[in-house]
Amino acid sequence: MWFALSGAGLEFFFYGSKCQIELIADGMWVSPEHCARYAIYVNEVQIVDQLLSEPRQLITVCDLPKPEHITIKVIKISESCQSTMGIGQINIDSPEGIEPTKPKKKLIEFVGDSITCGYGVDLEDYTGKFTTATEDFRKSYAYLAASELDCDYSMVSYSGYGIISGYTESDEPHSDILPPIYDAVGCSMGKFNCSTYPQNIKWDFLRQPDLLVVNLGTNDMTYVRDVIDRKLMFMNKYIDFLMTLRRYNPAAPILCTLGIMGDELFDTISDAVREYSRITEDINIRCIRLEPQCAEDGYAVGWHPTYKSYIKAANRLVKGIREWLSW
Hints:
There is one protein chain. By secondary structure, the chain is an alpha/beta fold. The chain has two domains: 2-100, Galactose-binding domain-like (Jelly Rolls), CATH 2.60.120; 107-325, Rossmann fold (3-Layer(aba) Sandwich). The chain has six helices and twelve strands. The protein has helices at residues 114-117, 141-148, 221-224, 228-248, 266-280, 307-325, and strands at residues 2-3, 9-25, 37-42, 45-51, 56-76, 85-92, 99-100, 107-112, 152-157, 211-215, 254-258, 285-289. Helix 2 packs across helix 6 (307-325) and helix 4 packs across helix 5. The longest helix is centred in the C-terminal third of the chain and has 21 residues, at 228-248. 44% of the residues are buried.
């Protein structure tokens, strides 16, 4: 079982006293800047938060004096771009075996960039260097909002990616764009079993989300700027991507957001949503502008949001979702 996306993982329960889990790294374990960061919980208490910095790790998750009901959760808290990780085997002392925990009643799928990944949030120094050790999706607005609404989540998010351009410091668009890989299980420098890139495996879409939240455009702005033709290109490609989302998720409400690291393209996104609705007669879609981060809340690596900024954004998002969907 392989994990690529931020927050990917597994959760199960059993009756017993001992559990060991074998974790498998992809080829990126040799790079301390890129290896996967993960956390393990026992009965909702975190017992591990570390990097998968060797090919295999056998973790003794619990070893209790007597059997009891135990719930185990393993989650990947760094993003897909850098590395992936897998589960080799699970060893327990229960004759009944393990059972997956039940899914929550609702699922929110977040489609975004580094802001959704929690990029650099654990280093509140905008001049600092990003490594996976500084990234924690659990502090992002997306995870905080899903937790407040008691929903399962899926984080289709890649740092630096956009709709027509990834982050760029030149006058040329960057090739890191999300729409072509939306239907993949991930996109990474690392390979499953050091043989297969996750971007070459299609997502099954078996469980449909109850809400889609799209937060893209921040990286595009580094290329679009105030160029009218580029704004029009962004708008048209945004409409195309909304149609892609609707094709794969025919019933889910779509909520389009922007603003945490700048809201310059929000009006263009609003125009795209209106035009999409006009073309398709799909009215199950809305926009919410998120408040830009401020100096008093600090800045993380590369001017990214701090935990304080994420809390504010999550509160605004939750308020908007509850007003719209009555959750």
